[in-house]
Amino acid sequence: MEKFGKKIREELFLLDEETTFTNHGSYGAIPKPVFEAHQDLLRSVERNVNKWFLTDLQIRYGDAIKVLAGLTGSSPSDVAFVENATTAVNAVLRSQSLGPGDGVLVTNLTYAACTNAAQVVCSDTGASLRSLEVRLPVSSKEALVQLYRKELEAHPTTKIVLVDHISSPISIVMPVKEIVQVCHEKGVRVIVDGAHAPGQLALNMAEIGADYYTGNLHKWMFCPRGCAFLYVSPSLQAQTRPLVISHDHLKSFSEAFRMQATRDYTPYCMLPAAVEFVNNIGGLEAISSYNRELSIWASDMLCKRWNVEPLPIAPELRSPFLAIVGLPKCFGPPTTEVRRGIARELLASFNVSTVVGIFDEKLWFRISTQVYNTKEDYAGAAALVAEAHKLHSNGPKCQELDWVLHSIGSGDYGCWCKEALNTISRLASHLAIHQLSPKTSVVAEIYGQLNMTLICSIARTILTRELPSS
Length: 470
Known about the structure:
α3 (about 30-45) packs antiparallel against α4 (about 50-70) and α16 packs across α18 (about 450-465). The chain starts with 5 loop residues before the first helix and ends in a 6-residue tail after the last helix. The protein is of the alpha/beta class. Helix content is about 50%, strand content about 10%. β5 (about 160-165), α8 (about 175-185) and β6 form a beta-alpha-beta unit.
């Protein structure tokens, strides 16, 4: 669509002109009309903060809840705003009556923060945490459903299951409706973490059937950050408590979650403005069509450009606005340090905003597509990553550097032969040529989280010291 892409980026977003944004999924981007409406509301609050908390907040919150109910196919009394999906998952887990012998089930696809929350709750209550392993390739929805069926049959003490609607690590759309049905057949409650779902997928709480559902509104629905929702089945609302217990804790579910001390509630009130923005640019259907087509094109292009494979999952499981492709192996081993280092390096040195993940012992490159993106964004990202690829391919070998550093650590300078001198010299040149800094270099991550200031100091020392020849 002509109105999407470069034109809408320039006219309706605040994005830095020098940066290639291919990571909308992590933090979202607030359109100018929503941003300006939010600023206007904040100014209004500051003009008369007492009026805001005593009267205006209740009205604006109520209006936003009605919009949220329409967006999620639920009743206004069954949904509440929360800061983010992780907050909601914590609140739900803390509201469960768990004890020794009870089981909580997550997967290796579960968002790490929520797995941590489940682990802490199990530790506090004596319940056991298990992780269902999803392995590639994934051939169909039914294959995933059968994994859950077998797991629950093998572990009948499972009390609650946490499943992502769209998994953050590899962006698989999980068949949550079918998984919920299997869990309910076994008498197991289900929390669906739909952090990435609102705006990507059409939602209907009654159709999904989950006991609890949470989703972020700042990602794909264009709300300010700190805006998400929690749906709770009516039969479980009385026992579901917010993390902050405040004045209305004895009232209804929606009231207890609405007011939690003096804080900024304005992001919640921006949902009507965000929905208005969506409708003004063509609606969710037009957005979905543009983003989905761009995602497929970008994924195919990156695979061909880098000679890598796409994520081996069935087309029906593919996220509409998120795509995953492999990274060239030369970037390093699939460790957290390497993953973070690559992402930081791409942003700091190449102005590419993206996500690098680890799954199935491989590094994966995750891209997002949004209405302000163009094919040129991904073609440019492909070229810049290829340049970073070349940088790593031409860099000093890890085992050579390890040998030199071992001698340094032992203080055995006498063993520095010409080979060591050559290795560290190449490293020094490598750093200088590519202007890598201590804060941004992937080299520091791949080579054991070395301090680049130390490496440069070693290089200077060895280049000025008279060393014995071999």
